[in-house]
Amino acid sequence: MKVMIGLEIHCQLSTKTKLFCSDSIENAEPNKNVCPVCLGFPGSKPKINKKALDYGIMVALALNCKINKSMFFSRKSYFYPDMAKNYQITQYEIPLAVDGFLETEDGKIRIRRIHLEEDPAKLLHVGGDITSAKYVLVDYNRAGVPLLEIVTEPDFTSPKQVREFLEKLSSILEHLGVYDSSREASLRVDANISLEGGERIEIKNISGFADVEKALNYEIVRQKGLLRMNVKIERETRHYDAERRITKSLRKKEYEEDYGYIFDPDLPEIEITEDWIKQIKANMPELPHDRVKRFVSMYGLNEYQAKVIVYTDKYLADFFEECCKSYKKPTEAAKWIITYLLKSLNWHGISIRQSKIKPKDFVEFLELIDKKVITERYAKELIKDYVDTGVSPRKIVESKLTKIDDSQLEKIIEDVIKENSKAVEEYRTGKTKALEFLIGVVLSKTNKQADPKKIREMLLKKI
Amino acid sequence: MVISKDQKLCDKMKSVKEFLQRAKAGDIDIEDFLSKVLEKTEKIQEKYQPFITINKKIEGKFSKKLFGLPISVKDCICTKDIQTTAGSKILEGYMPPFDASCIAKIKKEGGFILGKTAQDEFGFGTFCTNCAYVVPKNPYDVERSCGGSSGGAGCITAAADFPHIAIAESTGGSITAPAAFTGTIGLTPTYGRVSRFGLIDYANSMDKIGVIAKEVFDVAFMFSIIAGYDPLDSTSQKLPEEDFTKYLDKDVKGMKIGVPKEYFGEGVDERIAKLVWQKIKQLESLGAHYEEISLPMTKYAIPAYYIIAVSEASTNLAKYCGMRYGATEEIKGNFEEFFAKVRSKNFGEEAKRRIILGTYARMAGYRDAYYLKALKIRTKIIQEFKQAFKKFDVLAAPSMPVLPLRFDEIAKLKPIENYMMDILTIAPNMAGIPMISLPAGFINGLPAGLHLMADHFQEGKLITTAGAIE
């Protein structure tokens, strides 16, 4: 069954100040970063943050878009408690840029438009979720944070492709230095999905790429079920409940919402000159696409490795390059990063930047393997502890090797043999698995402070 | 430092010019002067009601250029810690946390904010009768309107028996109408010349802060203080600061005056037209030349203006919903019910009418036919004026088509008849060109106004021309 998906992506730009006033966008106590402009006080007037325009132009260039020579801001009117003015300053007729694309493994995704707008305030639903809360608290720190809205054509054919696109996009935004992925809900997605024979369903406001994929997978299953039972799928807006991993109906959409757009008369036309674009082009940082190529040619990685490292996130690529400065086997580093470090980070649900992993420690870790101080098998275990605790692998190994001396270990082993006579007997009758069990018991009694290799040797001598 | 004070000085002194000279010389005890001014203001308030709020706190540094000169401010202009309502119940008790940029300038130059003058709610009116608080009465006849929407500004300027200047605001004629009805002088500057930061919006693309005063000098003097670039208003124009009083030294010899025939047509009181022609002839006698011209786009101005104005106004008024400031109601039901209750109860009838009209004009399906078309008409009107100003220095016309109307006459006007009263002021206001209204004479004891218009940023020419025939 043919699936069509299109995205509207809202990305918070990491400027220092808000889009139309000089308040900081840093995290703060609720309602600290506010002023008459972003609170919509009578008489206040918006003033465009030029940096946000620079950032927008950079993204438009990176996504192969046409940039409009002059642009306007518009007022999008609707009443909602998260709107300080009950209209949002956005772009309507003439957005920043149009007609771009981004390649994925399964084909090109066309970008319809990119425009700048202000983020509304954040709502805190107290005593329930969006449909059941008793009341709502409003935090205007978020009101006026610059948002870049990127709208794609409905070119996606699977949730997996959506995820790939989002990861790629996020890496581009990070490489451009216009977006901070560590901020809460800094990238939010509205996904439109329709199955052959059904109307378009919109799932609003999903943050997290994994959640986008899950929400879409859920929707496909749900809609297929309905179609199979000959239930008509009507246009509707749904909300993704990340905890229960389901989508819930917010409202039926019988007609297009009417936002009564007018040009914002407080903000005059902005001209984007060739010179302006030229200047930005001249200062564009290296894009992920070029970085992948460079990783292949410079470090000898295969394309798969280069893509995983670069597209996972910019900071992982930075981490890799930092390691390669002192560690001269890049492919070996790449292997350990992709196969084990990344797996462990994912298991903890954190990014390299959120972890305590340092390039220097990681290089030492790789050297421990190279010098055969630790076995590869042990190294795989060690990396989990490393991600978990942030203690450098060298220190973990050193402490394990030194904390328990041989006589202490011997005593422990003797005790274990006494307490586990059944297992000892089993080993003697040929069940080799029993030995592994005994090693495990010893290891846990030493609080994993002893070298398993040594335990094995000593155990074998005793039994 | 106490210098010899003439205790009766305050009573005798009427003109701003004299006040400034004497204050500079140190002849005036400012605090004493201001307390007398406040006493007089209370009496005027009892008789004519020009104020929504009178500022009784005499504090500040009264030196620099203004020496404590009393300045009244239209209520839609934010004054820090002085109630600012824009004439609406929905902002009752609202104390702005900041000064409008023009107020900051006035305070910096040592002006005293005398109070906040009455206006039609959010500027929605031509007669200052759509008022949530007080309706100012015309000092020439208390049964008659002061004009609007800056009615309070015109009223106090005409009634003040002490030196004073009013800061007013115009979107479609709200400075010209009260100036004409109260026999005062009203300057509406070029759009973007005076910062709008701190002005409570009616229609942002047309709102202009200006001045109403008794003499052309006062207007030029105050305009010099409040004009200038302000980074807080993105539509503010980057022009050098100027002392506009210097234009009073120039004469009108060789000046070319255009007289647009559409401004003397149907609906314009012939007696007013006659007075205006007398003034044009007076200018001719001083060496100016005049010629009759035609501005055929004028007839499209009113519908186009009202579409743009209500479209913008209806979005500007959306923010008043009882959540953050101003009037509020008991929190009950969902947010839509709550907003509806606050807005239904606290907006006046005309505000509601304009919100509904504006929302309609912006709706998908109507937007192209109304809002976008109106924007195109505005561009054409601007082009027509630009064309005229290639040939003429100023255009001359009557300010208002009628003499100050009686309140009972106004009450009988249908909304459309009411809107038609703006016929002479709408086009120049839409085009954003500067204009000045000054007395052309009196008919049965009621003032009539002469309207002069000039090209963008040519306020100097208006001051020269008005000064010559004042």
Describe the protein.
The complex is a heterodimer of chains A (463) and B (470). Chain A has 463 residues and is an alpha+beta fold. Chain A has three domains: 3-279, no CATH class; 286-401, no CATH class; 404-462, Orthogonal Bundle (Arc Repressor Mutant, subunit A). Chain A contains 15 helices and 16 strands. Chain A has a nine-stranded mixed beta sheet. A three-stranded antiparallel beta sheet of chain A has the order 5-4-15, with no helix packed on it. In chain A, strands 3-16 form a two-stranded antiparallel sheet. In chain A, strand 8 and strand 9 form a beta hairpin. The longest helix of chain A has 20 residues, at 209-228. Chain B is an alpha/beta fold. Chain B has one domain (1-470): Amidase signature (AS) enzymes. Helices cover 39% and strands 14% of the residues of chain B. Chain B is built from 16 helices and eleven strands. Chain B has an eleven-stranded mixed beta sheet with strand order 1-3-2-4-6-5-10-11-9-7-8, with helices on both faces. Chain B has helices at 9-12, 16-25, 30-48, 101-108, 151-159, 176-182, 216-226, 270-285, 298-316, 335-346, 349-362, 368-391, 407-412, 415-420, 426-431, 459-469, and strands at 51-54, 70-74, 112-117, 165-170, 185-188, 208-213, 256-260, 289-293, 394-398, 435-443, 446-454. Chain A binds chain B through residues 36, 39-48, 75, 77, 79-81, 84-87, 256, 258, 260-263, 265-268, and chain B through 77-78, 84, 86, 91, 94, 96-98, 100, 196-201, 203-205, 231-235, 311-312, 314-315, 318-319, 321, 323-325, 335-336, 339, 359, 362-364, 367, 371, 375.
Please count the helical segments of chain A.
15
Name the chain pair whose interface involves the most residues. A-B, 30 and 44 residues
Enumerate the spans of chain A where pLDDT stays under 50 for 5 or more consecutive residues.
none
Shape of chain A: elongated
Oligomer: heterodimer
Radius of gyration of chain A: 28 Å
Helix content of chain A: 40-55%
Low-confidence stretches of chain B: none
**Total number of strands of chain B:** 11
CATH class category name of chain B: Alpha Beta
The average pLDDT value of chain A, as a whole number, equals: 91
Distance between the termini of chain B: 38 Å
